[in-house]
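Researcher: Please translate sequence to structure tokens.
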Amino acid sequence: MLKGLTKKSKVENDGLYDYTKYHMKLKDRAIAFLIGFGLAAIAIHIFFGNIIVDLVVGIAAGIVAQPIYRKMMIKKIRRQLLFQFRDLLDSLSSSVSAGKVVNAAFADAEKDMNLQYGENSLIYKEVRAINSGLINSANIEDLLLDFGKRSGIEDIVSFANVFSISNRRGGEIKSIIGETKSILCDKIDIEMEIQASLNSTKNELNILMLMPLIVVPMMSSFSQDSDNPAINITVKIAGLAIFIIAYIIGRKITDIKV
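Model: Translation complete:
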């Protein structure tokens, strides 16, 4: 997963990534193409039963699936990073509450993240880079702001901004870390509860998506098409378009962000 991320940082280049971008390898492109091609070809064949049309639409769908797959991977990686960042805040909060300064708290957090997620994890690489920057006399504010910018995650950006302002003005870092952790944990818990309650709805939507692919062949076997081919094609295209639009709207309705 890490191989798809684009390396980019103004503060430290080793091991840091731009989480707003995802460089698709040949394997990723092949997976995206095959999924898009397979789903589109099957659906089109059921509606029209023409191999040439199946191939043309399938290839087009495989190409369209590339950016969709990229967005899905970016979302998946950033979600993983957010969950790991929550545990980072938990580690920092424990260290700061014990009376340690920020630099020492990040040093302890590096050990905690290594034990919890391993050396190849996203958050461990970020904390290691921050500690490396601190050893080389880099500004902790710049390091966190750079992390927030690259992450593209609102919660991390907000934490970096508040931390930067409070650190310059001598604010209470302990309360900032604690409050940020509390808010983030509540937000993640609420999101998980919402997603759990919507799982059944999403499953129903996926089942409904398959229904036309089952009903259309059954109806075709019991009925005769119109003598006008243009009407037949127009009706099928309209039905397919309605089917796709309804599914897209359903996905948007069930995609609730906290």
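Researcher: Any highlights?
Model: Residues 9-14 have pLDDT under 50 and may be disordered.
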